[in-house]
Amino acid sequence: MEKIKDIYWIPAAGIDSNIYVIGNILVDAGTGRNEEYIFSQLKTEGISPSDIEMIVNTHCHYDHVGGNCLFPDAKVAIHEIDAVPLREEGHPLTVSSMFGDIIQRHDMDIELKEGDKIADFKVLHTPGHTKGGICLYDGETLISGDTVFSHGGFGRTDIGGDLNDMKNSISRLNELEVEYLLPGHGPCVNQGNRHLFMSYSQF
Hints:
By secondary structure, the chain is α/β, with parallel strands linked by helices. Helices cover 20% and strands 23% of the residues. The chain has a seven-stranded mixed beta sheet. A six-stranded mixed beta sheet has the order 8-9-10-11-12-13, covered by helices on one side. The protein is globular and about 40 Å long.
């Protein structure tokens, strides 16, 4: 597990998303297929699975929410729009069928909205990859889910998203001062603005 400022990064295993640990909060939880790997990564920093009190899902796709079931005592928070498909077993917008699996946990405790706070981070509603996708931003660090990636790409929009929404979301993110970009997949980088502008230039 790597540390970026005060955030621990568990790099994705297999088809999992990246997982970030902020105190006793997880941002995304992978597919749930790599329990031993995730728990061993947490253990390296003296974190027990039972220490995790909240999971914040950046959106409702299986590779980010499937692992919610590994932390049954943690509250689950997701944007109010993406809460709708996550509640329904087998809902096509969770894309679990694309991975040949089902989501084990469908409950959530907190429906997030634009401007809500998670620790020191502000919730930014950034639709495009999904209708209820979010990023987290603290004035320096952007946890971007599948909105933008460090290689300059952005999340696909053909599985419940919208290209115009993505354009608007990336345009908004380009207005931010971003020093650290922590995406849902791929490596984390410094000086994230450069990478955000690369993403926007692809439209």
